[in-house]
Amino acid sequence: MTDKRYGANFIHRQSFIELDARERATALIDAGTSRELLGPFERVESPWLAMQGVTPQEDDGCVVMKGKIAGQAAVVIALEGAFQGGSMGEVSGEKMTAALDLAYADSKKGTPTSAVILLETGGVRLQEANLGLAVIAELLGSILLLRKYAPVICLSAGMVGCFGGMSLAAGLASYVVMTREARLGLNGPEVIEQENGIDEFDSSDHALVWAIDGGEQRFATGLIDALVEDDTPQVVEAIRRFVGEGVPTVHRSSQVTLYRSRIGALDTSRQWDPKELRTLWTAKSATEGKQ
Amino acid sequence: MEQIELTYPAKRKIPKRAHVGVVGSGDMEVLLEPAEGAVAHVFIRTSVDGFGASWKAVLDRFFAKYDGAARIQINDAGGTPGIAQLRLEQAVEVSEQ
Question: Residue A36 pLDDT more than 60?
């Protein structure tokens, strides 16, 4: 396959990955309509990190930006992957939950408000343990409420990717968008290697990790809805498109029979190759239940 | 984590607040806000202990040029003095825009 990424336009791309969470959120919202909620000057930071000798960040690594996307009401919730690996603490999780709940309240009152969640996260912040777990449970519930009224769009651009409890958020989303550079999985590669040994999964083998968790594979097996280049206009276009499509007829996570049958049909007595899965689980088969 | 507080004289009011940077490895966030009076207060929280003299040297050099009445908060995750200098100058640039 020729790689179009390295064509003449390559050097003219505006990388989305290189933007921080605040810049990403601003880029997605229609120019001149964005307004940050609970920004860094409100100083709502984690009360638990300083106690453990970790420098907190004033927005706790979660940027909430209200505004319009393609002319429609929307909220963007962006996790900052560079701060504590984008991990979910009590404050960052509550900010996300509250933003989703406000979008739900507005949507129910007649202003459908889409939510775009930028997932660069390994899941729960270990320093905040149970609080992180609890808040992820809360925000998953909030996604389920909102997605009945307005689309919840998850975007993982990289380079952290999306793992742990927050991969469930991607699983519940109305639409998921990724780049080739991003990864999505329940257990991160290092966790699998630690728990089941290097024979099970060699987390230092990047080709293997991306062949399984990478955006290209997730798209080819129908587990996500769009694969975009690391180019800001392309990312923005994809998000605008899904905001416009509105609530899908059937959410991916509701297609229990389809995914059970996929797993059920697999011969687990042998090792499957990621490429084989692409022919077995085509993007087409994942949308069967949606039509 | 170590907390450091420094105070410098100031001559003028500053136009607006500014936020730059991320508390990511080798980096820091800087929050710069207008303050009352002819004084600038700097509050530093750094993940690396024992570099108080280096911080003072960086801020002394910064305030040799900067005369704004500001409240500056720095949340640092192991940035070098060079990074600190750049982030401070970037915050001023955003604040004066």
Answer: yes
